């Protein structure tokens, strides 16, 4: 007859395996007690290679010898979210990950271990790098344009201005961005009227 605790253990293991991110658990001594499939895929380590070993010996993150969220969780029982760290794969590749840690407690509410969830940020970082590259290209195109190009939000605040605009107006870019266009560039005697006109245009009147 299958014992209830065996059913519970199998149920929990199935949950870990179905999770998208890497998940592993440790005992009170920070030795790995479980390691799901996603964790294997991210790190390159097989479950059998990491069980009963200290996580710091396996993942070798840049926080292992400093402020380790997992060890803090084991000591304090606190949950930590959103740490971005670098871990090392089996092949020695450095991988950026976002981690969260939570305590594991017994029925008596004693800390018996901890669980860490981590997500590979490699694609995320690559996407942001590509976006930065495209933004820089767009900025270069704007700066070589021979006319003033300025972007203003619905409140009249300048969010972007090209080099030609700065040259003509005599301001540095940081002196213009975040400022109200009318306050900055429209003569005071005409300012109220222009602001009212701008509001009507933005309201579709």
Automatic annotation (TrEMBL):
GO BP field: regulation of DNA-templated transcription
- Record field: transmembrane: none
- Which InterPro entries does the UniProt record give? Biofilm_reg_signaling (IPR052155), PAS (IPR000014), PAS-assoc_C (IPR000700), PAS-like_dom_sf (IPR035965), PAS_fold (IPR013767)
| Record domain PAC: where | 81-133
Xref: Pfam families? PAS, PAS_9
Residues annotated as domain PAS? 8-53, 134-205
PROSITE patterns reported in the protein's UniProt record: PAC, PAS
Instruction: Give the matching NCBIfam families.
Output: sensory_box
Report the protein name in the record: PAS domain-containing protein
Species of origin reads: marine sediment metagenome
